[in-house]
Amino acid sequence: MPPKRTTVRDLRRQNRSTLLSTLFFDGPLSRHELGARSGLSAATVSNVTGELVEDGLVVEAGSVDSDGGRPRVLLRVNPAYGHVVGVDVGETGIKVELFDLGMTQLAAVEHNLSPADPVSVAELIASGLAEVVAGVPASTVLGVGIAVPGTVEQGPAAIVHAQTLGWDGVPLEEMIRSAGVALPLYVENGAKTQGQAEMWFGAGRGARHVVVALVGSGVGAAVVTDGAVYRGTTSSAGEWGHTTIVYGGRPCRCGSSGCLEAYVGAEGILDRYQRARGSRHTPASDEQSGVDSLIQAAATSKTAARVLEETAGYLGAGIANLVNLFNPERIVLGGWAGLALGEHYFDRIVTATRSHSLRHPYEQTSIALGQLGPDAVAVGAATLPVAALLDRGTDPRKPLSHPHIA
Amino acid sequence: MPPKRTTVRDLRRQNRSTLLSTLFFDGPLSRHELGARSGLSAATVSNVTGELVEDGLVVEAGSVDSDGGRPRVLLRVNPAYGHVVGVDVGETGIKVELFDLGMTQLAAVEHNLSPADPVSVAELIASGLAEVVAGVPASTVLGVGIAVPGTVEQGPAAIVHAQTLGWDGVPLEEMIRSAGVALPLYVENGAKTQGQAEMWFGAGRGARHVVVALVGSGVGAAVVTDGAVYRGTTSSAGEWGHTTIVYGGRPCRCGSSGCLEAYVGAEGILDRYQRARGSRHTPASDEQSGVDSLIQAAATSKTAARVLEETAGYLGAGIANLVNLFNPERIVLGGWAGLALGEHYFDRIVTATRSHSLRHPYEQTSIALGQLGPDAVAVGAATLPVAALLDRGTDPRKPLSHPHIA
DNA sequence: TAGCCTAATTTTAAGTCGCAAACTAACTTG
DNA sequence: CAAGTTAGTTTGCGACTTAAAATTAGGCTA
């Protein structure tokens, strides 16, 4: 409630964070360049980077000639400073991946688990974590990001609501703790972590206002406003898939009707195709191959082509709603179905977006396909502890108190 | 581009801003209480408030006993420190209103002007301004907020796109300057200023994530995220009225079809009613009385009742989209038509909202009617220079440089 | 009315911070 | 190897917030 005061020490933390983040995202830089980018004086840069180097967060990385003067010493974030783990909790199993601070994958394990009992999942996460972390000193693991397919209520401990898993108010964070994990945990919605991955390493790089629209079995979006993923009051913002696009239209699994997901989600697409063909029982082996073969079929089948074109229309209108409401500078279309559709029907989607957007916001935005596949969910999750590190400028495990330089 | 560095002076500015804002919004407070709320030490509070008092921004306002000790001296923002002007540019005329810093209206003028030629509007604003400001010393006017019914492209000078006025890329700010106004100008979309008014003085008070949904002839929304009106890349965010709610539905004046505005905007409601009755030519004297009499008619006419109930349904679905996307803690329904509908069909709107929202975000939000009428647009505009004052902690006319205490 | 008590402000004495200016370091050139 | 350049450090200072000590300002008591 009290608008946190600002003390003189916050200055240092903030500048530390700024420099560290600049180094992280813009690769090796000299102190000089760092000063230019951050606006800080050379003296301060020198001072702060000195601390960062002393703490082991930053290391020197060769040097570069500077025509006719002292060569610049390049600095970069020390990839070996620590490790982070990303966990992707999916509907059929979980993936656990270990990265260093350079976001290089060092290890990964995958476990299937159909009956998604929360306790088993928590235990599976704990054991996967133990497996993956085995190769590195325990003390170097800075935190664990956990992506779940549902909304996450952030609070003293994260609570998960995931309809597709049948979870309603599952205290996942506590459960993982009970399974014996003592590391900092960051539980977040999978669409948001994937969006974060696109922002850091994919099609969203460099932009500050982005909407990452994800279409797969489910439909969701990660809204990035001013560089940060927007969460809303209880961090369930961005539920694009269940916005109404056809009032009174197709029933949706969420219980409502006319949701975007009921039209452009994989199940919705396939079901619409079945109905268009008149047949009712062609259970595709799985959704992903079902959509693939539908796209194949469009080459020869008019019905298939029409269904997909309609899909592009709905999708464009859905994207246009995001354009009108958020006025982003960039839209990134991702998710496996989104990428598949985007590859074959990009123009049509763009056209539909244009025709349903107001001219002005439409002209300010560009539409791009995501550069990362659905695998990005785990990397995105792993960025959460890294983001905490960059944000605080220090090991997120340390309590935020007097640094007390020894 | 460079992530603005933080210097030790920013600290002071920020703390000054915090204290000033706290005083502005939370009424007279003692230095003690101020320290408690801001987290600042008593010493700093004393120091900063001393400056504020010296600058005339804050004045003492009586004192309060404190059981058995030195009584607390109350401080409050000095309403007489300066004046601000709010301008409401409407489709048929403009309103210019003068306020003191306590937001008490001191003067107001209204001019009609049907042919909305931008140059005449600019001149009308300039002359209205002169009229209204006549009673106070010129040097006390801190700035002028100007609300327009269209999107505003913020930049070195604001550009206005207002379809209903036939404006497309009108450099209104420059034009007003050319008309001889030298004061700081803040041009903003009218929905956003009205939203700001509800946030400061109306149904949005105290909340940080709010969507103010405005339904009148047009339909728009002001989205407040973390206490500030969200603007997007080029500040045209929040165009709720032109989001698609019925894919392939009624044509909208924006050129698209199925927009929310085509269903719940006044014109849309009345037109749907005409069609439902089969008659085509009952040109209501004006939209506002048309909607009023439609609501009257609903008591006896089944058709009228049905149209309004359907309207409540569409509106609820539209609100649900905002709930799903933004996860606000509060929804404020306003605008003249929104208030009229809300008064008679509140339950139905809420029901429709619930049935189209995901359960979790719906449960986190509350829906309330706006407390301010459409008159609030001008007050909202007037808050813009005040916001600049609170934000900077100093007269917004002064360049932001060394304070150099004399 | 003098003296005591309590609680609100102000002063005072550190301890931090970023900055400009003055230096030092490390090369290139002629 | 002296002069010229560019990178990075050190030094001294002004600006800040804070904790602690000192100073009000009423209310009460004797």
UniProtKB/TrEMBL annotation, chains A, B:
Signal peptide: none annotated. It holds the Pfam family ROK. Belongs to the ROK (NagC/XylR) family. This is ROK family transcriptional regulator. The lineage of its organism: Bacteria, Bacillati, Actinomycetota, Actinomycetes, Pseudonocardiales.
